[in-house]
Amino acid sequence: MFNSGDTAWVLISAALVLFMTPGLAFFYGGMVRARHVLGMLMQNIFAMGIISVLWSAIGYSLAFGGSNSIVGDASHLFLSGLTDDGSIPTMAFVAFQMMFAVITPALITGATADRLRFGSYALLIAIWSVVVYAPVARWVWNADGWIYAMGSLDFAGGAAIHINAGVAALAVVMVIGPRKGHGAEPMPPHNLPFTVLGTGILWFGWIGFNAGSALAANGIAAQAVVNTHLAAAAGMLAWLLIERVKTGHATTLGAASGAVAGLVAVTPCAGFIGDASPLIIGAIAGALCYLSLGLKGRLKVDDSLDVIAVHLVGGLVGTVLLGFFADTSVNADGFDGMFFGGGGELLKDQIVAAVAVMAFSFVVTWVIAQAIQRTIGLRVSESDELTGLDQSVHSESAYQA
Q1: What CATH class is the domain 4-392?
Q2: In the structure, what pLDDT confidence band is assigned to residue 401 with cuts at 50, 70 and 90?
Q3: Which residues contact 85 (CB under 8 A, 6 or more apart)?
Q4: Distance between alpha carbon 196 and the CA centroid of its chain, in Å?
Q5: Nearest to 35 by CA among 192, 256, 191
Q6: Whole-angstrom Cα distance, residue 202 to residue 401?
Q7: What's the pLDDT band for 1 if we cut at 50, 70, 90?
Q8: In sequence order, which residues have a C-beta less than 8 Å from that of residue 116 and are 6 or more positions away?
């Protein structure tokens, strides 16, 4: 009944995507100050627990149950009522999508680093995963979702994951305000080797993230593997080149950030482009994400670890550029972009999808964050922040004297 090769590939890809969350923890953990590193690791690892439970209980049903174009129904609560009608077991698809649901709210933690109460963070991502992530995933990936039906393409999550989480991060930091001492004292990364390790895990896991979205061990998956790797490489080189020109130095942190920028931008495109397109998209993303670092000052927000510049801007770059570079000779289930004779219809749909996800995610996230802030509070006290989340929240230390 099932294709064993396709099933094996999707299950392996699910495991690769799950591994990305601890990779993200190390990527972010290395960039915070030493007294907050366990707080960052804990926030990311915790998402693997709470979001998995919520996904099985209600998230999957809201994303993929029923036939409504906006939100699903209760037909698959606690993964009940599932039927198999494809080349892979539905449960394999559930597992793969669960790992996407886990890492998406974890991305937000890079923007809010050093200052969230743990219980409030847990409440924030629990509500967000149900009322923001699940509906957006439906819009983008479910055949009944309105963005999918419109004709917009998102192979592995440019809009559903990166734009969604990036703009949510902006909403939360606008509510909680900057870190104590932000702009007045240096806050350098405490352990760049952690960040490089996290980059390697993310790059490795992203193969499953993107190529697994083919849901088959086929030529599209192979193309997605190549596209993913090339975009990361091009993103790294472009970031480093501009960084070297502007600052006189090519940094380890820049290499890591540029690679992730390329990976983010190729995510919506991975199964729809070929030839030189991943190199071009990756390079544009690396350059624009680096230049977007200045947005923090203009927006007057403290995005601690550049989630807005890398994930929001990178997601927008990939989503919009797909309207130019999509090629049906690579994937006949897609549409041709402007550079391949498709006219402007796909580009229009890509822009509509990006704007809709940004508007919905920002507004709803801001409301959730404000509600928590005004009731139990989102932010730790000033004394706890100065002591560090490791001791004040978790009563632990990452490093012993």
Answers
A1: mainly alpha
A2: low
A3: none
A4: 18
A5: 191
A6: 31
A7: confident
A8: 43, 109, 124, 176, 378, 379, 380
Q: Confirm if 227 and 274 have CB atoms less than 8 A apart.
A: yes
- Spatial separation of the C-alpha atoms in residues 317 and 323, rounded to whole Å: 10
Q: Of 189, 232, 174, 224, which is closest to residue 379 (Cα–Cα)?
A: 174
- Residue 153: predicted pLDDT: 98
Q: Which two tokens stand for residue 146?
A: 């309105």
Closest by CA to 278, choosing from 288, 291, 266, 267, is 266
**Sequence spans of domains, the chain:** 4-392
How far, in whole angstroms, is CA 161 from its chain's centroid? Answer: 4
Give 10-76 as a DSSP string: HHHHHHHHHHHHHHHHHHHHTTS-GGGHHHHHHHHHHHHHHHHHHIIIIIHHHHHSSS-SS---STT
* 3-state secondary structure (DSSP) of residue 379: strand
Share of the chain above pLDDT 70, in %: 100
Neighbouring C-beta atoms of residue 322, cutoff 10 Å: 30
Residue 207 confidence (pLDDT) above 70: yes
Q: How far is residue 261's CA from residue 166's CA, in Å, rounded to a whole number?
A: 12
Our separate counts of H helices and E strands in the chain read: 18, 0
Per the CB < 8 A criterion, the answer to whether 281 and 269 are in contact is yes
> Over 90: is that where the pLDDT of 300 sits?
no
Residues linked to residue 116 through DSSP beta bridges, in sequence order: 379
- What span, in angstroms and rounded, lies between the C-alpha atoms of 225 and 210? 7
